[in-house]
Design the sequence.
């Protein structure tokens, strides 16, 4: 994949060309498709020292990551994000990887989530260097190709690599799309945790005319799911909305009308606030299901993809809020709503918050961002850097 046509530092102050080149890389998780090459070329032009990090574990796809840093002393301000994207799906009115400009919008998979913000990161640094010279400290980029995937070989592994080098991040800004409808509405200062569960109930297959000779697993499954959804998990906390348990699948794989199936399967997701932990919810699930099963045979598989966290309002959120209000005129809400992000890993290393594009079209067909928003987001990031390194 070719880098941006004009690789001069001055040209990089405009985020649009870099955003288009990133979108033109079909980097559907876990494929990189040249996206990190494009970004590395841009950051090297600005003077960053770049490290390409490839991680894999048995049974997982290898993932390419990039850590880049300019400066080797002082406070380390980190921009974090990802260049991988979700599959394109069906129904696009334009090629999802052609980065078309239509009616003052940039179209393409990843425009909002989050290649647009990655380009704004780089453009903001270019503007900062152009106006003020190299930072009085350090600026780093932690960019993964594994955020939209299982998140095993991405940000978490890069943080472990940094720890092994005794390299510290002082604060981090993640560029996930945080604004519901317009740029400036919302900063994320935390996220709920996420737990995925799968239930398998074992019964005995039989003829529907002789149900007494079978053990119908559907009946047991209905009791189990009823017990899980009988009451809310909580009413919310001071900083978080209520936790939710959402059923995502119920299946017996039975297309025959006269057979009682031998097994039933269900899946669910819990998004939980700081009233709970993955461990406490796992205990609750086991105990609740065991009581409802009343001796019936079932299996429960649990995977915890992240714990809830919050970075209390303070210097970082104030810095970002001031920059957002200065550029957009909006006073952003400090929120913990929404899904998970790689900030769940970074929060253990340093204070972190998230601010990026609007999310109305992320993961949808015809994903797009306003060109004006690209420019405004760049200016927000630029002001954050200026204020961080001068205060």
Sequence:
């Amino acid at each position: 994949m070719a880098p941006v046509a004009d690789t001069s530092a001055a040209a990089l102050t405009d985020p649009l060309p870099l955003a288009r080149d990133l979108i033109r890389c079909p980097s559907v998780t876990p494929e990189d498709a040249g996206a990190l090459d494009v970004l590395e070329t841009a950051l090297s032009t600005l003077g960053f020292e770049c490290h390409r990090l490839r991680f894999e574990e048995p049974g997982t796809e290898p993932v390419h990551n990039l850590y880049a840093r300019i400066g080797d002393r002082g406070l380390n301000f980190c921009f974090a994000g990802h260049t991988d994207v979700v599959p394109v799906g069906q129904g696009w009115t334009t090629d999802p990887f052609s980065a078309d400009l239509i009616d003052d919008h940039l179209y393409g998979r990843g425009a909002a989530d989050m290649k647009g913000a990655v380009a704004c990161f780089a453009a903001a640094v270019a503007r900062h260097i152009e106006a003020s010279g190299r930072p009085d400290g350090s600026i780093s980029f932690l960019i993964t190709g594994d955020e939209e995937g299982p998140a095993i070989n991405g940000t978490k592994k890069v943080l472990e690599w940094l720890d092994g080098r005794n390299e510290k991040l002082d604060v981090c800004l993640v560029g996930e799309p945080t604004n519901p409808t317009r740029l400036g509405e919302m900063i994320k200062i935390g996220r709920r945790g996420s737990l995925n569960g799968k239930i398998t109930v074992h019964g005995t297959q039989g003829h529907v005319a002789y149900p007494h000779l079978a053990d119908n697993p559907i009946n047991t499954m209905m009791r189990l799911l009823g017990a899980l959804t009988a009451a809310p998990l909580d009413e919310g906390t001071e900083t978080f909305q209520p936790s939710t348990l959402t059923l995502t699948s119920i299946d017996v794989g039975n297309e025959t009308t006269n057979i009682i199936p031998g097994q039933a399967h269900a899946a669910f997701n819990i998004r939980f606030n700081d009233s709970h932990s993955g461990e406490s919810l796992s205990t609750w699930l086991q105990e609740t299901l065991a009581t409802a099963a009343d001796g019936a045979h079932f299996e429960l598989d649990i995977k915890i993809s992240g714990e809830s966290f919050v970075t209390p309002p303070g210097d970082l959120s104030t810095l970002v809020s001031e920059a957002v209000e200065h550029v957009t005129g909006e006073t952003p809400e400090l929120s913990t709503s929404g899904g998970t992000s790689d900030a769940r890993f970074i929060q253990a290393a340093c204070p972190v918050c998230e601010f990026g594009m609007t999310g109305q079209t992320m993961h949808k067909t015809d994903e797009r961002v306003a060109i004006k928003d690209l420019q405004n987001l760049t200016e927000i990031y630029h002001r954050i850097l200026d204020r961080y390194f001068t205060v």
User: Anything to note?
Assistant: The CA atoms of residues 190 and 336 lie 5 Å apart. The longest strand covers residues 193-202. The mean pLDDT is 95. The two ends are 40 Å apart (CA to CA).
